[in-house]
């Protein structure tokens, strides 16, 4: 996608042919900063500190992190150390493990002298695969938006609610939940997006709104608690969110607050779709609520907020009383029964084991 008229991906191989560039998402929307990753430790730190975030992008970053590791140490022991380092960076998004396992399958059978070249090639394939998958997700989701547009009076906007950031910043390009939105906008459909702020890290307000604004998509940032009210008053035509892991039976793990949006959508008859690339599927888990590990992050993400002051300074302020305990659960699980459909690269599927296994027998 584009930033000020220039095409960017969220991660890329630098012109030197070995180091990795990435947009530092911690600095958005107030500063656009490019980070350079040169070691596996730097890649793991980028994932852990959310310099990069979003399940597909975490996977791509881990893949490049393995390539950087193999460049430094192509021994079996060195590669195993890098795998353990990277897989521990964040626990919830299954794409991280998927990408690392793909890298190991490609690297380990090769002689040490060939491993670095193979690692960089496989990491690039994983990145390109993500772009292609998201483009297909966009096409399948576009059909849903077009159907809604056809049912509305001419000239009326299609109002879409999304939560967190499942845009191109969360992937290598296009995004998952936003791919259908970008395609619909580019086709000339009248689109308007309700953007949940998504506390505590404000990925909606700071990242999704930034993305949509740069692409020219009409949008409005709302407080997280506004979605139910909008749905009650028929101001939302459909909700589309991303996900960090989908179980074999269709349970969806996504940014905290997604479950509440799904409940409100269900109560008001609003279609609730989840956009996901196949590497986000986890066929080893049947019960998302009991089996998916939910990351708990630091208290400061809830207790403080960062923004730009009137005179242009970037400042962090505390919004919680000193001494008040803080809990920071990063994700929740939406049961499959609340999901209208799963938008994948192989079509819009029912959220159940039979549909997922039929569409992705290679993963099942």
Summarize the structure.
About 40% of the residues lie in helices and about 20% in strands.
Structure description:
The chain has 364 residues and is α/β, with parallel strands linked by helices. The protein folds into 2 domains: 2-129, Four Helix Bundle (Hemerythrin (Met), subunit A) (Up-down Bundle), CATH 1.20.120.420; 138-359, Rossmann fold (3-Layer(aba) Sandwich). Helix content is 40%, strand content 19%. It contains 12 helices and 18 strands. The chain has helices spanning 40-48, 55-72, 76-87, 94-107, 112-151, 179-186, 203-215, 227-232, 258-268, 288-291, 300-303, 353-359, and strands spanning 2-3, 6-7, 11-13, 20-23, 34-37, 158-162, 191-196, 219-222, 238-241, 245-247, 252-255, 272-275, 281-282, 304-308, 314-318, 331-334, 341-344, 347-349. The strands form 5 sheets. Strands 8-7-6-9-12-17-18 form a 7-stranded mixed β-sheet, sandwiched between helices. Strand 7, helix 7 (203-215) and strand 8 (219-222) form a beta-alpha-beta unit. Helix 1 packs antiparallel against helix 2 (55-72), helix 1 packs parallel to helix 3 (76-87) and helix 2 packs antiparallel against helix 3. The chain starts with a strand and ends in a 5-residue tail after the last helix. The mean pLDDT is 96.
What number of domains?
Answer: 2
At CATH level 2, the architecture of the largest domain is 3-Layer(aba) Sandwich
Strand content: 15-25%
Query: Are there runs of 5+ residues with pLDDT below 50, and where?
Result: none
SSE topology string: EEEEEHHHHHEHEHEHEEEHEEHHEEEEEH
Widest beta sheet: strand line-up? 8-7-6-9-12-17-18
Q: In the CATH hierarchy, what is the superfamily of the largest domain?
A: Translation initiation factor eif-2b, domain 2
DSSP summary, beta strand count:
18
State the distance separating the first and last CA atoms: 32 Å
Helix count, DSSP H or I runs of 4 or more residues: 12
CATH C-level class of the largest domain is: Alpha Beta
* Fraction of residues in H or I helices: 40-55%
Task: Enter the CATH topology name of the largest domain.
Answer: Rossmann fold
Let me know the average pLDDT: 96
Alpha-carbon Rg, integer: 20 Å
> Which outline best applies?
globular
Q: What oligomeric state best describes the polypeptide chains here?
A: single chain
Please give the largest β-sheet: 7 strands, mixed
Structural class: alpha/beta
Binding site for substrate: 53-55, 90, 203, 254-255
Catalytic activity: 5-(methylsulfanyl)-alpha-D-ribose 1-phosphate = 5-(methylsulfanyl)-D-ribulose 1-phosphate
Function: Catalyzes the interconversion of methylthioribose-1-phosphate (MTR-1-P) into methylthioribulose-1-phosphate (MTRu-1-P).
Pathway: Amino-acid biosynthesis; L-methionine biosynthesis via salvage pathway; L-methionine from S-methyl-5-thio-alpha-D-ribose 1-phosphate: step 1/6
């Amino acid at each position: 996608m584009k930033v000020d008229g220039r095409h960017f991906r969220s991660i890329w191989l630098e012109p030197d042919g070995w180091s990795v560039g990435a947009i530092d998402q911690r600095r958005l929307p107030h500063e656009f900063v490019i980070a350079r990753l040169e070691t596996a430790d730097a890649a793991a730190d980028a994932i852990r500190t959310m310099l990069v975030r979003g399940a597909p992008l975490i996977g791509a970053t881990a893949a490049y992190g393995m390539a950087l590791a193999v460049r430094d140490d192509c021994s079996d022991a060195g590669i195993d150390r890098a795998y353990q380092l990277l897989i521990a960076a964040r626990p919830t998004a299954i794409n991280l493990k998927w990408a690392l396992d793909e890298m190991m399958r490609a690297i380990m059978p090769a002689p040490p002298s060939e491993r670095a070249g193979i690692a960089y090639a496989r990491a690039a394939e994983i990145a390109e695969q993500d772009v292609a998958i998201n483009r297909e997700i966009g096409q399948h989701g576009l059909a849903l938006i077009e159907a809604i547009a056809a049912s509305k009076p001419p000239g009326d906007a299609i109002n879409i609610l999304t939560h967190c950031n499942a845009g191109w910043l969360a992937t290598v390009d296009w995004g998952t939940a936003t791919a259908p939105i970008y395609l619909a906008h580019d086709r000339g459909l009248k689109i308007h997006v309700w953007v949940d702020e998504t506390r505590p890290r404000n990925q909606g307000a700071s990242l999704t709104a930034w993305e949509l604004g740069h692409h020219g998509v009409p949008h409005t940032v709302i407080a997280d608690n506004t979605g139910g009210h909008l749905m009650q008053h028929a101001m939302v035509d459909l909700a589309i969110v991303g996900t960090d892991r989908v179980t074999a039976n269709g349970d969806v793990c996504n940014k905290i607050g997604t479950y509440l949006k799904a409940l409100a959508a269900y109560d008001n008859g609003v279609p609730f779709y989840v956009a996901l690339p196949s590497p986000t599927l986890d066929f080893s888990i049947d019960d998302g609520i009991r089996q998916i590990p939910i990351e708990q992050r630091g208290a400061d993400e809830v207790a403080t907020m960062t923004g730009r002051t009137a005179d242009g300074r970037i400042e962090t302020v505390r919004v919680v009383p000193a001494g008040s305990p803080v809990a920071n659960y990063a994700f929740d699980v939406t049961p499959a029964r609340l999901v209208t459909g799963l938008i994948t690269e192989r079509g819009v599927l029912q959220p159940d084991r039979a549909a997922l296994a039929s569409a992705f027998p290679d993963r099942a």
